[in-house]
């Protein structure tokens, strides 16, 4: 197929008298459109490696850096020793370890520096549904978010026997029901250290009495302290008072007392809580 004829170029304006006019040469392009977006030669065939020739005959050559000496020649005494010796400036290692060194990283400290993020639906006063633990299925009120990222919730205890507890937001469904706690502020001593258990090592005490197992170890039963009881009452009073100010207080009390459950053909991802 013959290449198409070049289009007629618009005539340039007339040059002034006495000026030298240079004639422009128009050649036929090697590559042209064959129709429907198809070109005669591809981009790879029309590519010219021009960058290679930019540095040929360059006026300012790259300055070579002086090489650091690795060997020094020393004179030595003795008739049969040759007079000189080449000695390495940096000695080679006499010992190469067979295993890499284990570098200790402070991974325990970095966890406390992580940024905690809670879901936007989990705000103070939100009624939540617990999904795990011994209180699973109960509806509770979110009281605060601790520095560790855990949620602090309460039943209240008088409604569903759920005390002040720390819960991860993974095991909680945040509902659209919210209790306006007003100017309620969580006491400063209710932090993560407050809820830590004293893990005492229960050593096996050898018992020589007849009829008792020498390998038996008794576990101490957990009993809430007086401080825990007073804190539970003070927090629950603020929550119950806020519930009593609502117009639907009777329905909300029954809602918190009732347990959450699913029947057949009921799917939580299709529900609006």
Automatic annotation (TrEMBL):
Record's keyword terms, sorted: Ribonucleoprotein, Ribosomal protein
Molecular function as annotated in GO: RNA binding; structural constituent of ribosome
Keyword Ribonucleoprotein: yes
SUPFAM superfamilies, A to Z: Translation proteins SH3-like domain (SSF50104)
Function: Component of the large ribosomal subunit. The ribosome is a large ribonucleoprotein complex responsible for the synthesis of proteins in the cell.
Subunit structure: Component of the large ribosomal subunit. May bind IPO9 with low affinity.
Name of this chain's protein: Large ribosomal subunit protein eL6
């Amino acid at each position: 197929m013959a290449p198409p004829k070049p289009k007629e170029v618009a005539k340039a304006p007339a040059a002034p008298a006495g000026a030298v006019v240079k004639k422009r040469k128009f050649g036929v392009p090697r590559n042209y459109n064959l129709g429907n977006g198809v070109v005669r030669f591809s981009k790879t065939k029309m590519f010219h490696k021009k960058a290679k020739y930019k540095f040929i005959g360059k006026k300012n050559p790259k300055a070579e850096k002086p090489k650091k000496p690795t060997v020094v020649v020393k004179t030595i005494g003795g008739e049969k020793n040759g007079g000189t010796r080449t000695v390495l400036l940096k000695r080679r290692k006499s010992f190469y370890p067979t295993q890499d060194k284990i570098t200790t990283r402070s991974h325990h400290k970095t966890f406390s520096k992580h940024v905690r993020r809670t879901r936007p639906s989990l705000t103070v006063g939100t009624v939540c549904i617990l999904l795990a633990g011994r209180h699973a299925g109960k509806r509770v009120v979110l009281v605060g978010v601790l520095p560790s990222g855990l949620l602090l919730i309460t039943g209240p205890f008088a409604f569903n026997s759920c005390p002040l507890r720390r819960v991860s937001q993974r095991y909680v469904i945040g509902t659209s029901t919210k209790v306006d706690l007003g100017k309620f502020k969580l006491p400063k001593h209710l932090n993560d250290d407050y809820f830590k258990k004293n893990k005492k090592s229960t050593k096996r005490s050898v018992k020589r009495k007849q009829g008792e197992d020498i390998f038996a170890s008794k576990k101490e039963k957990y009993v809430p302290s007086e401080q825990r009881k007073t804190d539970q009452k003070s927090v629950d009073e603020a929550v119950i008072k806020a519930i009593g100010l609502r117009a639907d207080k009777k329905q909300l009390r029954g809602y918190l007392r009732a347990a959450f459950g699913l029947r057949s053909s009921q799917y939580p991802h299709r529900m609006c809580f």
